Structure formats: structure tokens, C-alpha cells
Amino acid sequence: MTETKTSPPATHPAREPVIRVEGVGMDFSGRTVLDSVSMDIYHGETAVVMGGSGCGKSTLLRVMIGSYQPSRGRVSLLGQDITDLSEKEMDPLRLRFGILFQSGALYNSMTVAENVALPMREHTDLDDGIIDIMVKMKLELVGLRDFGELMPAQISGGMKKRVGLARAIALDPEIIFYDEPSAGLDPIVAGVIDMLIMDLSKKLGVTSVVVTHDMNSAFKIADRMFMLYQGRVVASGTPAEIRNSSDPVVQQFITGAPDGPIPLRMSKTDFGKDLIG
Amino acid sequence: MSENRVESLLGTLGGAGKDLVFYIGGMGYLLTGSLWHLAAPWLGLEVRRRAGSRALFAQMVRVGVHSIPIVTLVIYFVGMIIALQMAYVLKGFGAPQAVPVVVGVAMLRELGPLLTAIVLTGFAGASIAAEIGTMVVSEEILALESEALNPIQFLVMPRVIATAVMLLCLTIFANLIGILGGFTISSIVLDMGSNFYYSKTVEFLKMQDLVTGLIKSVVFGALIALIACQEGLRVKGGAEGVGRATTLAVVYGIVALITTDLFFSWLFYKVL
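YS: structure for the whole thing
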């Protein structure tokens, strides 16, 4: 497994990265979840972090958004080192990025429109009339303008994610993080979400970081991909580079072969010995 | 007992003591955070959150208003029970006319605050723990934080303040209902007139009976909500974790109420 050198994409030559992850490691009660991860993500690109369940990609996402403090290494976001920031120091930065959570994470006690309005109500001085208009605009971007009065419990999983996306872009963020955007969705809705991700990155020029194990969607939306395995980046590059990668782990992930360098049987002890002793 | 056993027993006790200290520390953190977020906007130290005050009102309705029927039912019956039990005892002393006083004192000083709080532990504490626990599981808490919104300010503060204030109001109400229950029995069983019952109650009850009860009720209210919020925020895992949090919120809530009640009873006995 060789670590491919990460170079800035051709369209954005020699720029300061928007997100810089340097040798980040994360241990949870003695278990190493992230070993040593480094990646630079540049302005305006859509970076996809892929990997199987338990490879540490969700942990990496939480480190990037400052909700976990890494055990080793450093993380910078929008030119600021966030590794040692306190919750309070982190807050101004939080207004500059949005997150779409895996389940949408809508506030269940509020209507769809109130969910989208909350960040604007709390962080801006705009009056309610203007906020109402902006909420309609955000909901229109995700195609749900007529659904503002419904409660989260009344809409489908795919719609929740779309509302979550509208809420994530409420304050016009510079970066949007997506945690498993297509998990649990049917192929059509997953396609809609993919289209929205590409649309937003084109229309708003935001930097997107997508964490996923859905290869179809990854190849569709990515400018650059990072393959995470056992807490390390084992491959990175453009979708074409990844597709043509000779790395067996990457190939197994693309083809979805049940056995290979990522083993089917995860037990470390000998089966025969375990049975007979 | 061998030395090893003593050592492991001490170890267990020490561990439990440490857990208790951390638990109380966590509640203290939530309490100071709540008070800070309540006071800071008034002192101009923090931007007032619009959603915070709306949540406070919603929680007051949820905790205080919706629980009125169940509190009425429970306390009215308890008032009747006390009157019946005391009528039996006091008749033996030839002093059945003391029933109004006994019921009044028992209600104001002890049963009004405590039983209303216990009802509220089941009614509000459990649902607060379940609600916040579910929010943890569905990443809503993380979503709040990532929008630079403080969960203590948005979730804990409104619940703690609402429960403390509403328990105070409910206790005043419960005192009246309990006395009404006592009167119901007295008039049926002991043939007491309403004027007699009222004058006896007013004559012997002191302001401090009422006030000590109400002081307790505010503390009880804050305790119920703090424990429920803490259990909710500590949830790990899915539905199972939420279920455990709900149970623990009620169990720890009741234990905390009784312990605090004992402390206050002792304090008031010594001081007043």
C-alpha cells in the first residue's frame, strides 16, 4: 500500500488549502481509529472520502468539523488551526461551514421552515419577513418550497436530508460537509441528492467534503477522491486515477468483491483450534 | 474478611464515590451553565437567543400545565388518605378536630412539595431524558453545536428553569388540593363544617410552613430537570441507551428528591 502524493487539482494551482489535515491520528480507549491521515482540500473542489464501515471516515469528518480533538496531528480550517480551539473559539468558524448529517438531524420539535430559519434567526439581525423569504429560497434550492409548514416526522427520509441540506446552506457557508449523503435512500432519491451536491458546488462555488461508501455516487460527484483503509489514506487522486489504480484494496472496493485484501473473515484466531481446542 | 476483600470493597466504594462526585459535578456544570445563560442576556453579556425564550414558554406548558390533572388526582387522594389515617389516630386521643391542622401541616411542609415533585419526575423527568437522549442519538445535539448553538442554552436552561418555576406553582396548587381532600373526608366522616375546617387550618398554619415547602419545591424542580438532562445528554448507543436514560432519570430523580428532602427537613428543624 503506497500513499499517493496529494497534489492540488489542476484547476486551482498552488493555492492555500481550505482544509488541511496533517498526520491526524485518533485513539478511542486504546483502539486506533485513525492512524495517520494527511490531506489537503482546495477551494471549490468536491473531495470524497471513501472507505468501508469502521474505516474511520466518520471520525475523520468529526475531527475536521472540530467536534473531536485529534489524539495526534493538526487540522486547519479556512486558514485557521482548529486543533486546540475551545468550543467558544470554534463558534465563529462554525458559521462558515455547514454539515449535512447522516439522518438529516432535523430538530423534531420544529417545522421544516423553522429548522432552516434557526441559524438565520440566531446568528443574524435580519427581521422575520426577510428570513421567511430566505427560507423559501433555500427550500426552493432543494425543491421543497411548499413543505415548510410540515413537521420532520411528516416527511420521508430523502426529504429530511434535503431539508438538512437547506439548513446546512442557510448561512451561505464556504464549506459543506456531507456525512453519508446517500445512505438509506433509494437510488432515485440518492441520485437527487448527488445532483444537489453538484448543483450547490457549481451555483454557490462552495468547497464540499463528502464522506461515503457509495462508489456510484462517489465517482459521479468527486473532483478528487481519498480512499481510507484501517485509519490511513491508501489512495487519492481524480476519479479516473482511482478507477485505474492498481492498489488491490481500491480495486476490491470498486468491484465490491466479498473477499480480497480486505478479508471476509475478520476473526484472527484459528477456526479449527477454536472448535476443537 | 481477608485483606484482599477489604481492599476490593474499598476500591468499589471509592469508585462509586468518584462516580457520584463526577455525577454531581456534571449537574453543577449544567446548573451554572443554565443560570449563566438565563442571566447573561439581561446583563448584556450575551446575545439574547430568540429560540431560547420561546423554548422556555413551551417547556413551562409541557411541564407545568399538562401535569395539572395527574397532580390534582394524586394530591387530592393523598389529602383524603391523610385525613382518614389521622382521624383514626386523633379520635383515640379525643381530638378529631385537629385533623385540619395535621393535614395542613403535612401538605404544606412535606407532602405537597414532595409528592408533586415525584409525580413530576415520572411525568416530566422521564420525558425530558427520553427527548434529549433521542436528540443525541439522531445527531440533533451535534447539529446544534455545529451551528454554533449551545445545547445548554437551548435545551437545558429552558427545561431547568421551567421545571423549577412550574413545580413551585404546582406545589401551591397542590397544597390547596390536598387540603381540599382533607376537608372532603372531614366533612363526610367527621361531620366538620367548611367554616370550622377553614378557620382551624388558617389558625394553626404558619407562614414558615408554606415557605419552607416552597423553597424545597424550587430545588426539587431544578434537581428533576438537571438529572433528566444529564441522563439524556449521556446517552450512548441507540434506543437501548434512551430507555436506560429514562429509567435512570426517574430512579436517580426520586433518590435525589428524598435525600434532599431529608437534608432540608433537618436544616429547617435546626434553623427555624
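YS: worth flagging: Confidence is low (pLDDT under 50) at residues 1-8 of chain A.
IM: good catch. Also The radius of gyration of chain A is 20 Å.
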